[in-house]
Specification:
Layout lengths: L4 H5 L2 H14 L14 H11 L3 H9 L2 E10 L2 E9 L5 E8 L5 H18 L5 E5 L2 H8 L7 H4 L1
Length: about 150
């Protein structure tokens, strides 16, 4: 009883639960296999994989204003979320509900336009805009050409 399990077995409520689970699991062929060692390099590789590259960090650092937009629509209506991050920790968040029917991509555009107008009103000279819509971002950068007349407008 000098092993770490001693502390667990001295608590009656924990022991009762463990016994109940053991009885429940007896009908299944469950076997315990210890997990092998996890190399520290795996964690390091994982962190490096998820970290943004230095060039992306430098690019974002050169912008003093960052705009994050997301638009959505469903049968109940459409709306958008706009987050504007400015210098010195300034953070402005807006949630919009549109009074008109809009498709998802149209809501994304409206969110982007609203965010850009807000940034201009706040005096932003240089703005990094981020959106989760590949269509909108590709059309704004000129990679895609808008075909829908409403999107062209």
């Amino acid at each position: 009883m000098d092993l770490p399990i001693r502390k667990v077995l001295q608590k009656p409520d924990v022991v009762g639960r463990m016994v109940r689970w053991a009885v429940e699991l007896l009908e299944f062929d469950v076997q315990y296999e210890p997990r092998g060692p996890i190399k520290g390099q795996m964690y390091a590789d994982f962190v490096v994989e998820l970290s943004p590259t230095d060039s992306r960090q430098e690019e974002e650092a050169s912008f003093r204003w960052v705009l994050l937009v997301d638009g959505s629509s469903n049968q109940q209506g459409s709306g958008a979320d706009v987050i504007l991050e400015g210098p010195h920790g300034l953070l402005i968040e807006q949630t919009l509900r549109f009074a008109f029917k809009a498709k998802n991509n149209q809501a994304e555009y409206e969110a982007l336009i609203t965010g850009m107008l807000l940034a201009k009103e706040m005096g932003a000279q240089r703005l990094l805009a981020k959106s989760d819509s590949l269509l909108v971002t590709s059309q704004v950068t000129g990679e895609y050409q808008a075909k829908d007349p409403q999107m062209v407008a």
